[in-house]
Structures are given as C-alpha cells and as structure tokens.
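Homework-ish question, so no full write-ups if that breaks the rules, but can someone show me the predicted structure for this set?
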Amino acid sequence: MAAGPSVPEAELVDVLDLARWQFGITTVYHFLMVPLTIGLSVLVAGMQTAWVRTGDEKYLRMTKFWGKLLLINFAMGVVTGIVQEFQFGMSWSEYSRFVGDVFGAPLAMEGLVAFFVESTFLGLWIFGWDRLPKRVHLACAWAFSLATIASAYFILAANSWMQHPVGVVMDEGRPRLTSIWAVLGNNTALAAVPHTVAGCFAVAGAFLVGIAAWHLWRDRGDQPVWRASIRLGSWVGVVSFAALAVTGDMQAKLMFEQQPMKMAAAEALCHTEQPASFSVFAIGDVSRPDCESVKSITVPALLSFLAHNDFDTEVRGVNDLVVEYQAKYGTNYPVDERLGELSGKPIDYVPVLPVTYWGFRLMIGFGAVSAFIGLAVLWLTRKGRLPRTKWFPRLALAGIATPFIGNSMGWIFTEMGRQPFVVVPNPSGVDGVWMFTARAVSGLTVGEVLTSLIALTLVYAALAAVEVFLIARYVRAGVAGVMPDKPDKPDEPSDTLAFAY
Amino acid sequence: MDLAVVWFCVIAVLWLGYLFLEGFDFGVGMLLPVLAKDNTERRVMINTIGPVWDGNEVWVIVAIGATFAAFPGWYASLLSAAFLPLLVVLLGLIGRGVAFEYRGKVDTDRWRRGWDRMIITGSWIAALGFGLIIATTVFGLPLDQNGNRVGSVLAAVRPETVLGAVALAGFSLVHGAVFLSLKTDGEIRLRARRLATRFGPFALLPLGALLVWVQVDSGSVWTWLAVAAVVVAAASAFERLEKGREGQAFAALGVVIAASVVGLFGALYPNVLPSTLDPAFSLTVAQTASSPYTLTVMSWVALFGTPAVLVYQGWTYWVFRKRVSAAHIPPVHVP
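A: Not a homework solution, just the prediction itself:
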C-alpha cells in the first residue's frame, strides 16, 4: 500500500467507536421525531377529513392545534434526516463502497418518490389554507402523510437488507444487485414496516392522550376538542399495541431463522434448550457467558413458541451459535492494518448481552405500559366521564414518553443485536455476502470524528430543548394559540395571508 | 448510450435543480440584513420562499442519494475525504431549516434576532460550502489508489475550491436579489432590484473566474462554449433587469447556472473525482458506476419520478405566484 491514512494504527479503533456512537446518537435522535411525524400526520389528515365531511368546527380546531405541533416537530425531523443521507458516505465509506450497488437504490427512491412529495405538499398544506379549494388542500394533507409512510418503507427496505441480504450475487468481492423486487419485497422488510409504523401510531396516540388529558383536567374551554382527541388517541394507542404485538411476533419468528444470534442474545440464552423457556426478568449480570450468576424468572416453553409456534422446538443458545458462526464466518479478523487493533484478532460474535437482553424487555415493557395507559384512559373517559384526580393528567402526560422509549429500545436492540456485523450473513440464501462493522468505517482521523460527534450532539441537544420549549408553549395555549380570532367576516375579501412565517 | 454516462448527466441535472432553486433561497437568507429594515420586511422576504424552501432542499438530498445509488465510489470518497467541510455545511443547513420554522413562534425581538442570525449565517455557510464541495469534486483531492484521502483533513480547502465557494455565494446573492424583485412588491422590490443591477455583475465575477480556471485546467471546446453561454446569459440578465423585466432576468440567471453546471461537469467528465496525486488514481464514471442492472432500475424510477416532481413543484410555484408585500403579512400571533 503506497499511502495509508496518516493515523497511528491504534487510533483506528477509536474512529470505529466514535463513528458508531455518532451513528447511534444521531439515528436514535432522528427516530424521536420521525414516529411522531408519521403517526400524527395521518391523524391530522384524518381530523381534517372529518372537518371537510361534517363541517363540524371542532374538527377544524383539532386539525389546527395538532397540525401546529406536527409542524414544530417536522422541522426537526427534516434537518436531522439530512445528516443521515450524508453520514453513510462521510463516516462509513467502506460500507458505502461495499453495499452501494444495492443499498443506494432504496435511499435514492425514498428521496425521489417519497421525500419530495412530503416536503412539497407540506409547504402547500401550511401555506395553502386560503389559496387552495378545501378538498385540494385536504388532498395535500393526505399526500404529505402517506408519503411519510412511503419514506418509512424505503428506509426500512434498506435497513432490512443489512439484516437479511437478498437479491444479490457476489461479484468481484462486492454484492451486485440482481433483483430489486427481492430487496423491496424482502420478508424482513415486510415484517419490519408494519411493526415500525404501528410504533409510530403508538407514539402519536400517547401524544394526543397526554396533552388532551391535561387540557380536559384544566377545563379552560374547547372541551369537545380535547374529548375527541383523547378518545382518538387512546383508541389509536391500544390498537397500535395490538398491531405491535402481532407484527413483533412475526418479526421475532423471522429473526430466529435469519439472525439466530440476535434472538439468543435477546434472551441472553447461553445454552441450547429444548423446550426453551422465556426469561421475563433477570437478576444478576447477563453479560456473563456461563449464565451461572443469573437468576431469571422464566415462563417454560414460551420461547419455543415465540420462535416456532410450538412448545417443544429447540432454540439454540449463544455458546453453540458461536461455534457455528466461527465455522461459517471465520475465527479471526483478517490481518489488515486498516482494522487497527482488531487486525488478526479473534472475532467476538456475541452482541453486548445486557443491551440486547434489556433492550428487548424494555421495548416490550414500555409498549405494554403505553397500551395499559390507553386502556385505562378509555375506561376512565367512557360515556362522557372525566376523572377529577390530578393523577389523571400526570399519568397521561408521563405516558407520552413510553412509546418513544419503546421505539428507541427496539432500534437499539435490533442494531446492537446484529454486531459484530453491519451486513448480517443470510444463513439460508446468498453466499458470502456479509460485512463486519469494523471494516465498514471510513479512514478518518480521530479528530474529525470526535469533532463531528461533539458538534452534532451539542447542536441536537440544544435543538431538543428548543423543540420541547415550543411544544410546551403551544400546548399550554391550547387552540387559541393557533387560531387568531378574525376581525373580518370570513367571506370578506382580505389581502392578508391566512398563514405566514 | 451508456447508462453510466446518462446517470452522470442525471446527477448534474439534480445539482442544477438544487443550485437553481436553493440558490435564491440562500440569497434571500444572505440578504436578510441588507434588504429588510424591520421585522415586517424580514417576514416579507422569508415568506417569498416560505412554502417552497423545504421542497427545494430535497434536490440536494436526492442528488446525494442518487450519487450513492449510481456511483457509490464517488459518494464514498468525496463525502469521507471532505468530512469537516461537509460537517460545517450540515450544521448550517440544520440551523437554517429550523430557524425558518421557529423564528415566528415567539414574539420577542431577542428570539427573532437569534433565529435571523441563524438564517443569515446558515445561508452563507450552505452557499459557500456547497460551492466548495462542487469545486472539490471538479478539481480533485489527494486520493490514494483505494480512493481514500491522503494528508490533511482540510485537503478540500485550497485556493481553487475557495474560489468555488465564493462563486456560488456570489451567484446566490444575485439570484436571491432578482428573485426578491420578482416575488415582492413595494420598497423591498425596488431595493432588491437596485442592489442586483448595481452590484450583480461584480458578484458574478468569481463564478466567471472559476469557470475559466476549470476550463484552462481540463476544458474542451464545448465546455468553453458553455462558458460563453454563461457570459451572454449574465449580460442579458442585467440588461433585462434594467428594463424592469424581472421575470426574464430571473430566467436568464437560470441559464447562467445551467450553463455553469454544464461547464463544470462537462470539464469533470470522464472523471467524477480526480486524484491530485496521480491521474491513475482518479475516480471515473466507468469505474465507480453501479452495475447496469442497478442503473436500469434507477433509470425507470427517475423516468417516472422526475417529471412528477417537476409537475407538482411547478404547481406549487403557480399556487404561490402572487407577489408578497408588507400589506399581506398578518399580525404576529403566538401563544
């Protein structure tokens, strides 16, 4: 090699760690805004539809209020999304070169057929209230909100290919795309999309419930708006959780097949069991490979059922899978100076067990708490009832956080659970297509990655504070904060814009 | 025709769309402290791009995404080698995008001043930064045979790429001023037009210098013709503006940026990112292109997707075709 990156060897490992931290922070952060945008935009489009169809002012007020919160959130989703489009090339150039023939296509499609629609029709929707006929304006809301789901589909198709590469052959050391339909129809993606979208609606539902509960309890006007919102939100939350459970089960069954190590790690299952019991809760250090220090509360045979739909199938444990992975994918990293400290070292095939074990449980747990709050609210507000206790708004407001945390935990689990791979080998399909995360990173200096990690984290933290501040302000003001009382009669021609920045 | 060449042209067209559309968005942001005297006038300026800036910005996201899909090696080498400049551009875009949405959400001067500063600096940073990045891909980087950068983390910052930065900022200023004279009414319109006629020709000089530098470096007959087209279009833009034909002047500036993109990408071809160390290490269209199958798939998507984008974005500009003036700006209403 004529000239490598002018960095001491030992530093390259740090570049890898820093680049991973940056990807983790920026992506988990981005996915706080994304689910709220996806879920809320569809609900707002539904509210506006109800207004257009019934003419009931209540629905217009709902559309305006929730629409404003949607916009405050959407701005953050856009700007943090831009970073994602660049980040693969900037920090993960080896990955980009390796997967470019496959992975770039769904990303480009997302931009061209989904994000363009989102951004353009959102602009039309915000500024078009008095410029467009009512139904055309409503159509803009639907174009925008459905495009957010299309976006999710393309991005998840790209991510699913990393979890389960399909539709390619190896050609000169790189996967070459042979069927775009296999990539877009990847069964991993088809299971991930409904699961993720259901998670988005869980977020939007809890958001409606928390804020509307507080307003109902405060009782300063617009009660019909808040009552309709809380009923809608809690139904959406409960139905979403049901959908999450069903689709999550489908995903888990696929994952037992496609990424057995990830699912063994989700259970911190050390030894192969038949039938395998499901661990509800563990006391002790789950990262110990011998399992001996861990006391776990288990449900017999449940894991077998989750994996294969029967109560006596064998589920393979981490220790057996390590042997199998070593035989298939090698025991040591290749000797390559670009791998830095990892060059020639043994490959650790076991993900960070406390993260996968607890991530998996917290995902399910927070989702369940969120669904429970939804059910409780449905019961407490049945037939026009309204609880007067101050615990009601407190619980509902705190409940907003639960699906957000559940979503984040799910992503952290599934992304950490595929380590040490960035592209996980497909055990039953394509031969030879996998990539270790350690080989994916760009040849950057520690200074560069550290600068960007710090800069992005600080800017994101500051913007989070601003977003929460603004949302709280608009929430407190209620509908009056977004609907100025018009002095003119509505049919009197006016030069003033209905909305302006 | 070879699909890889077609996709090289598609990437150039996506950049053209971005520079044409966000060029005036940047200009409006950069001129905010120059052309507006009070908050209402600043709101007039921001609202000329209010409904469209976000849709305009998607052009660069698609340009970058399409580069990833069609030329992964180009995407990987350029973005990782110009890491720090791109980080600054991203921070600028983040601040500016949030600022448009948030500046009007609290009714105090302090709040608005803070976000205005972010719009102004963010617009400058983005215009300068993308100018630098485009010049970098044209002039090249010190790459080894694997397409990785050798040497300084600021290898992308050199006299010729800084000239590229100034060139795009200068164009954005003129484009923004002419756009404002086309889209506003009243005092601002006159001020914008005056500014464009008086200083516009000077602001375009760096772009001219950049184009000549590139052609001397690696031009051909037809890329020189593109430079000639830039000069003619620029002259006619100012002539039309003098006559008060703002729409025609704006269209002529569109020709300026289109011919500039032809001049830059035309001179770049058949490379996509030259190596300044050894021409043998330069990344080329043929060598970085995705497989013919992937390019075919993407061609079908682009064939149906791009016209649709042009139609509905064009419709947006039609819906919001009215000039904005102080009389249109509603009173501030915040919680």
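Now go work out the reasoning yourself. Hint: Chain B has a mean pLDDT of 93.
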